[in-house]
Specification:
mainly beta, five-stranded mixed beta sheet, 1 helix, sensory transduction, Arrestin C-terminal-like domain-containing protein, Ig_E-set, Arrestin-like_C, Arrestin_C-like
């Protein structure tokens, strides 16, 4: 069996514009052949074509007739031919295998190889054994030309983009109208396969209509152009990738960042040098609302290339910081631990909270409320003096120490202790231990009306300077207070 075949050297299923390609043509004959020449041709071209059914008037039949019209266009980038064997009118080659080397340099400005619905860009090498008075031997080798797109050579791709669209939507016969606003921002508009497209979004929905979801899509659009018999256009859109975000309720707003990754299993040809096939990409955002309202849409053109942008960030490094209320100025006189305030409600003469808000400059802080937190006292000093209990045992009432300022309430009304309850409710003191305010030696005289301890910077005082010695004295004192009003 006789045949001819093209072999390329160091061909990895792709080549680039401006590259030198080299190879050899193999001719295999089962017997001696009479030839005129062994040729090799290099060709690159683009074409578009489709048919369109049109109604035309036939003057012969004088009727309107439907006819399929072929629309087409063609563009050639290079065409070259080399004679590998030239034998004049004819020559003979013996049976067997014969190899003939060749080389060719591709032009620099070429579009990428492409196959579309209504057109294509093709490159090929064709080897021909020209035989006189017989059919030729031919073999076609298709070249896959990849034309890189350097995003750094295209101006404007580094610039961030901020866009905003809005519309007014009515409900209840336009009695309640509100605005729906959608803002979208991109850090750049040039990307390569495998990169993520970060989309900063903000929706302000001041309408009575809920936003069902927000949808982002990256779409490619192919435009095919014909010139014969007239100029016509056809478009072919394809979805590359998409994502969805949850909706926003009526009279609400939301800010977030979405990410779309450019797929690597998709073809992104460079058709800049082709005038009859154009390709473009865009990011389409759609704010989808309920029927019968129309969706709110926004689009940003993108460029997808093969060489990424350098020296520019194509993603949002972090979300914008949330604005917080400023912290109050620090005051060294106030302890930073949280303490409930003491208040007196109505005619009650008893304290309602477990701990008073007593602020003592330079004094020790209150014991921590959490049992796992270590106490603020030194390990060698207990919070209460061991030789002096914090309050008398037995039925003795707690003596009135220095008066306590109760949220500005400072009168001379005595506060008798309840005879049936201990002076410390729930086992916790109502105020700081006296032992932490005065030396133990000053606490020996519980019967005195006043203590001889020196006053600290802030002195705690009860509303009464006297404490009843017994329950009866307390009752009498209470009656006197009631008479006094």
């Amino acid at each position: 069996m006789s045949f001819i075949k093209v072999h390329l050297d160091n061909y990895n299923n792709r080549c680039f514009p401006g590259q030198a390609i080299a190879g050899r043509v193999e001719c295999c004959f089962n017997k001696e052949k009479k030839l005129k020449a062994v040729k090799i041709k290099f060709k690159g071209r683009a074409e578009t074509e489709w048919t369109k059914t049109e109604s035309q008037y036939d003057y012969t039949t004088k009727k309107q007739e439907s006819k399929n019209v072929r629309y087409h266009a063609e563009e050639e980038y290079f065409s070259a031919e080399q004679n590998l064997v030239q034998g004049g009118d004819e020559f003979h080659l013996p049976a067997g295998k014969h190899f003939y080397p060749f080389s060719y340099v591709l032009p620099r400005n070429l579009p990428s190889s492409f196959e579309g619905s209504y057109g294509n860009v093709r490159y090929y090498i064709k080897a021909v054994v020209d035989r006189p008075w017989a059919s030729d031997y031919e073999h076609i080798f298709s070249l896959n030309v990849v034309s890189p797109v350097d995003l750094n050579s295209i101006s404007g791709l580094r610039d961030p983009v901020d866009t905003s669209v809005d519309k007014t939507m009515c409900s209840c016969w336009c009695k309640d109208a509100g605005a729906l606003t959608f803002e979208m921002s991109l850090p750049a508009t040039g990307f390569v396969p495998g990169q993520k497209v970060d989309i900063g979004s903000h929706v302000e929905n001041m309408t009575n209509v809920n936003v069902n979801c927000v949808k982002f899509e990256i779409i490619s659009n192919l435009q095919f152009i014909t010139h014969y018999p007239s100029t016509e256009y056809r478009n072919d859109e394809k979805l590359i990738t998409e994502c969805k975000e949850i909706g926003i309720g009526a009279h609400c707003d939301k800010s977030w960042t979405s990410s779309l990754k450019i797929p690597t299993n998709h073809s992104y040809p460079n058709l800049t040098a082709c005038s009859i096939i154009n390709i473009s990409y865009r990011l389409k955002a759609k704010v989808i609302v309920s029927f019968p309202h129309d969706d709110l849409e926004n689009e940003v053109p993108l460029v997808i290339g093969s060489i990424p942008l350098t020296g520019v960030t194509t993603t949002f490094e972090a979300s914008p910081p949330v604005q917080e209320m400023p912290s109050p100025p620090e005051d060294s006189r106030i302890l930073k631990e949280k303490r409930p305030s003491i208040f007196i409600s109505g005619n009650s003469r008893f304290l309602k909270e477990k701990r008073p808000s007593v602020f003592i400059s330079g004094g020790p802080p209150y014991p921590p409320e959490s049992p796992t937190t270590p106490p603020p006292y030194p390990s060698g000093s207990p919070p209460y003096p061991s030789e002096t209990p914090p309050y008398p045992t037995g039925e003795l009432l707690y003596p009135a120490g220095p008066s306590l300022i109760l949220n500005g309430f400072d009168d001379k009304t005595s506060l008798p202790a309840s005879p049936g309850s201990p002076p410390y409710p729930s086992g916790e003191p109502l105020h700081p231990p006296i032992a932490t305010l005065f030396p133990p030696s000053d606490l020996s005289d519980f019967g005195g009306r006043r203590h001889s301890a020196p006053s600290p910077a802030f002195v705690t005082r009860f509303p009464s300077d006297f404490a009843p010695r017994s329950y009866e004295d307390g009752t009498d004192q209470k009656k006197k207070n009631e008479k006094l009003g």
